[in-house]
Each structure stands twice: as structure tokens, then as C-alpha cells.
Amino acid sequence: MSSLNDRLARIKAGFLEQVPPEVGVTINEAVQGLRDSGIMNGVPTAGTVLPAFNLPDTEGQLVSSAGILAQGPMVLTVYRGVW
To answer: 3-state SS string over 32-68?
Structure first.
């Protein structure tokens, strides 16, 4: 079984094969610029303990982290939304 990083690398490679080379260069430069800015220093990593929170689910209903964690482990995915 491949790791998530391996799978993501294959997805990225597949995407870069489908766009003009200059688009790939621009994307890579933008990503490197973000990394160089230090923004990643504040990003929570797997296992980071967050304070309790409530967020809307896909139907707009508030869901509590405490309620989910009472049922077992939780994965939080953040969708950036429309660019």
C-alpha cells in the first residue's frame, strides 16, 4: 500500500502532465514562495491537539468536535472555497 504522500505525488505529476509547462513552473514557484514565507511553520500537523470547536457540516448544521471525538478519532479537512 502506498503512503498518502506517494499518492499525492502521483496526482500532482498527472496534473502537471496535462497543463502547459509554464503553468507548472508558475505553480511550483508559488508553492515555493509560500514555503519560503514561513507560513508552514504555523500549520497544525497530524496529532496536533486543537481546542474544542463547532463548525458547519456540508448541510450547514453545526457539528461539535467534542461530539465527533466521543465516537472515535476525527479527521478535519479544510476546504479553501472559491478562489
So the answer is: HHHHHHCHHHHCCCCCCCCCCCEEECCCCCEEEHHHH
